[in-house]
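Today's session is about reading a structure prediction critically. Students often jump straight to the picture, but the first step is always the sequence itself: look for stretches that repeat, for charged clusters, for runs of hydrophobic residues. Only then move on to the predicted structure, which in these notes is written as discrete structure tokens rather than atom positions. Here is the chain we will use throughout the hour.
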Amino acid sequence: MTKSLTLLCFDYGRKRIGVAVGQTLTATATPLATLTAVKNIPDWEAISGLLKQWNPCALVVGYPLNMDGTSQSMTHAAVHFMNQLRHRFRLPVYQADERLSSYEAQSRTRSLKNIDAVAAQAILETWLSANLVSIENNATIRQQLAGKRKL
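Below is the predicted structure for this chain, in token form.
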């Protein structure tokens, strides 16, 4: 497949949500924004705006786990966020192991201001390199690409 698909990735946190945009042609991503969550509630208007602007075919959300692979308190919160994204925007939502993404983000940037968006970039690039073939073969995504559905 030579046509590039666009994806958005979220590094979910109870106070901040890092967002990155990526594409399948080169399997690279770019940090976009850090959104603020108030009382654990994401800024759905800002998320909707980013989805309208970038028109992604799918979403990826960092899946927080302990280093031994067990779930933690944020794991359940991230799953809830994924379910909300799926329900609100009717797009495929994939989870991506985000272990060491903060460490990777710190090695990529010196600015703590943008650390969450850079973490989302690292999560998305790792996910793309591991899942590129499966996303290109996904029937739902191929159908969306053919119709280029607007949100």
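Discussion point for the tutorial: The chain has one domain: 6-147.
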